């Protein structure tokens, strides 16, 4: 069965610093990969996804993630964070051979941005 | 915009009560999911449904049941609520195989407290 490991439970950073949130998944076969963000007292919103094609995917608010098949990783990066990026971030994986089946989530990384 | 609506944001119930959590989606999605979110544990899948009247157990189905009588509605039932079911419950939906893959869309969550 698939599993997802988010290597850091909490990441504190200062505003305008770069950040990387790490995610590794268990399977070496094809996967779909996702990053979701959860702001306080809200549901999850899709941040970005990798389905196929370019291994570097970007979101509209400056985040990017790179799919690395050999290292089974999908780390999330932002070159300069804002206070408003404070949230919990979840990495998730699904099996492309079973489209629409449930996403498997990591345990989440809390990003805290301070001034 | 896709909308997944959960009937309550906050709910307080007594131990032993039968509890119904309702979820409605307006995008004609085949798949619907119920997750439970706890600090440090991430999201854990309780049940999912890939069609009307169809259901599959997730990772933690014990103490829960589900009902899907109509495509747009997926209910989570706590047969006899216990304090260890105090949690945030998240509903999600997505297209199934026939539409190709899309990401899951989440509701705002229901924070259930069992006293």
List the topology elements.
The complex is a heterodimer of chains A (115) and B (115).
Chain A: E1 4-6, E2 10-14, E3 19-21, E4 23-25, E5 32-38, E6 45-50, E7 56-58, E8 64-68, E9 73-78, E10 87-94, E11 104-105, E12 109-114
Parallel strand pairs in A: 2-12
Antiparallel strand pairs in A: 1-4, 3-9, 5-6, 5-10, 7-8, 8-9, 10-11, 10-12
Chain B: E1 4-6, E2 10-13, E3 19-25, E4 31-38, E5 42-49, E6 56-57, E7 64-70, E8 73-78, E9 87-94, E10 105-106, E11 110-114
Parallel strand pairs in B: 2-11
Antiparallel strand pairs in B: 1-3, 3-8, 4-5, 4-9, 5-6, 7-8, 9-10, 9-11
User: Which word captures the global form of chain A?
Assistant: globular
Roughly what fraction of the amino acids of chain A lie in strands? over 45%
The tally of helices of chain A reads 0
List the uncertain runs of chain A: none
What's the pLDDT, averaged over the residues of chain A?
A: 90
Termini separation of chain A: 41 Å
Q: Using DSSP, what is the number of strands of chain B?
A: 11
Biggest sheet record of chain B: 7 strands, mixed
What's the assembly state of these chains?
A: heterodimer
Rounded to an integer, what's the Rg of chain A over CA atoms? Answer: 14 Å
Chain pair with largest interface: A-B, 26 and 29 residues
Round the Cα radius of gyration of chain B to an integer and report it: 13 Å
Task: Give the H and E element order of chain B.
Answer: EEEEEEEEEEE
Q: What distance separates the N and C termini of chain B?
A: 36 Å
The overall strand count of chain A is 12
């Amino acid at each position: 069965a698939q599993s997802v490991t988010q290597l850091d439970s909490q990441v504190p950073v200062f505003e305008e610093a770069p950040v990387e949130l790490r995610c590794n998944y268990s399977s070496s076969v094809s996967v779909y990969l996702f990053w979701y963000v959860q702001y306080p007292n809200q549901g999850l919103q899709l941040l970005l996804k990798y389905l196929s094609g370019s291994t570097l995917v970007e979101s509209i608010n400056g985040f990017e993630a790179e799919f690395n098949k050999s290292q089974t990783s999908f780390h999330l990066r932002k070159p300069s964070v804002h206070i408003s990026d404070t949230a919990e971030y979840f990495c998730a994986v699904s099996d492309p051979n079973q489209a629409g089946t449930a996403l498997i989530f990591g345990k989440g990384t809390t990003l805290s941005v301070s001034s | 915009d896709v909308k997944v609506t959960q009937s309550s944001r906050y709910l307080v119930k007594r131990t032993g009560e039968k509890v119904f959590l309702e979820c409605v989606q307006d995008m004609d999605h085949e798949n619907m999911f119920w997750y439970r979110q706890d600090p440090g544990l991430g999201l854990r899948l309780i049940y999912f449904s890939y069609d009307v009247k169809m259901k599959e157990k997730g990772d933690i189905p014990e103490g829960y049941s589900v009902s899907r009588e109509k495509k747009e509605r997926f209910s989570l039932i706590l047969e006899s609520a216990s304090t260890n079911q105090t949690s945030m419950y998240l509903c999600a939906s997505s297209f199934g195989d026939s539409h190709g893959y899309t990401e899951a869309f989440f509701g705002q969550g229901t924070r259930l407290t069992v006293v």
